[in-house]
Amino acid sequence: MNLSGRRVLLGVCGGVAAYKAPALLRRLTKAGATVRVILTKGAEAFIRPLTFEALTQEKAFCQRDFLSPPPGFIPHTELARFAEAVLVAPATASFLATLARGDAESLLTATIMASKARVLLCPAMNVNMWEHPAVQENVAKLRSWGYEVLSPGEGELACGDVGPGRLPEEKIIVSYLERLLAPQDLAGKKVLVTAGPTREPLDAVRFISNRSSGRMGLALAEAAWKQGAEVTLVHGPLAFSPPPFLKAIPVETSAEMAEAVREHFPASDILIMAAAVADYRPREVFSGKLKKSSPTLTLTLERTADILKEVSQRRVPGQVVVGFAAEEARALREEARRKLREKELDLIVANDITRPETGFETETNEVYLFFADGREAHIPLASKEEVAWKILEAVKELL
User: Fold this and answer.
1) Is 13 a catalytic residue?
2) Phi, psi at residue 121, to the nearest 5°?
3) Fold for the domain defined by 190-283+299-396
4) CA-to-CA distance for 173 and 149, rounded, in angstroms?
5) pLDDT tens digit sequence for 295-305
6) What are the phi and psi torsion angles at 43 (to 5°)?
């Protein structure tokens, strides 16, 4: 899911965070959205309409356009018809209060009230204002109307106070917008996804691991969430933090991952095991730091639990289990089919680790799908986000 061809109305209110709106607009247009902008009277005190017009190549609408519209053009109804989604960022305390009481005095509130579009509000304000009972009451009222109201980010604010009140990060805002516009095919489903590597300790400072970045698993978790699923992400050590809208359970070893999967699998409708779990671990974990005492060191490794095979054999009717296989091209199909059969999976996703654009630590992938009923499919090289959506299309067919 991206925003290609989607029509988004961006409302900008008069807060310090208004300076972030052009960067957000840029991100929306890069994602393919057609964006029109409304600035409140307060927003114009912080940033000029010309900035947005330069980025969209379209007129940015202001309060004066509401009070003195051009002949034959009614701004709030025309913009209301245009929008598939209305995004307000930043949304100030004053704007939330005006909207919550149904006051159509401004172009932005009048447009929202005249529109049937989905609405995403992104508050940004002083921490004490955000926590004030009046603001929280307005937020609760707007949510009861079906509006999506994000909680502000936490950190140091422009005024020097510390706490919730920052405009959420652009990536988070866009993810929620994509979710608002995506088909909710997985609504009501619980999806368990594993991602990243595991680390098997050798001593207090060393471990055995692999080059998995976790990007593919994270892309699958985000895509499932955007389609309405309740997602639990069990992940090994990652170089990046999972987004806050995912229920993330960090683990380190294969044993910890096995424990987390065993705990959450019974309540899941779908398990997607995208993690690169270590096949072996040191039989002995040395206390402290193992000293360099001889020219060679012999380690004895033992097999770890086959998490996927174990939980697949315990599933109940209706649960879908999906595995991943990172293989060399010469044996990809045979190895994938073998794992599919031996682990009793519904679907296995295989990729060629010998190609630089489809191996570990890449932002792209090309995969082959092997189904238990004998079918096969191919997803050509694309970003891992695009590949994740296409994998989920195949998974939904199995429900």
Assistant:
1) no
2) -110, 135
3) Rossmann fold (3.40.50)
4) 10
5) 998 999 999 99
6) -65, -35
Q: What residue ranges do the domains of the chain occupy? A: 7-181, 190-283+299-396
Token pair 């209060």 is at which residue?
97
Please indicate, yes or no, whether the overall pTM of this predicted structure exceeds 0.90.
Answer: yes
354 Cβ contact partners less than 8 Å away, ≥ 6 residues apart: 328, 329
| The domains spanning 7-181 and 190-283+299-396 adopt the same CATH topology | yes
Q: Please state which CATH number belongs to domain 7-181.
A: 3.40.50.1950
Q: What is the pLDDT of residues 24-39, one digit of tens each?
A: 999 999 999 999 999 9
E-strand ranges in the chain read: 7-12, 34-39, 60-61, 85-91, 118-123, 148-149, 153-156, 162-166, 190-195, 200-201, 207-208, 230-235, 247-250, 270-273, 280-282, 301-303, 320-327, 347-352, 364-371, 376-383
Q: Cα 19 vs. chain centroid, distance in angstroms?
A: 24
DSSP 35-55: EEEEE-TTGGGTS-HHHHHHH
